[in-house]
Each structure stands twice: as structure tokens, then as C-alpha cells.
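User:
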Amino acid sequence: MRSHPLSNMNASRGFSLIEIIISIFFVGVTLLLL
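Assistant: Predicted structure:
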């Protein structure tokens, strides 16, 4: 059983979306601190 990172990302789009939301939130917090 091979498990490639790209295959994993394609399989779970939900996680990708959550990561994007977290990234945006983190950037917002950073901007507020600055």
C-alpha cells in the first residue's frame, strides 16, 4: 500500500479547506498583533 502526500491531499479536501481557514485566521491574528 503506497501512500503519497498528493494522493492524501486529493482524498481529503475537507482538511485542506480547514487548513486554509486556520492560515487566514493566523494571518489575521498576526496583523492584529503588528
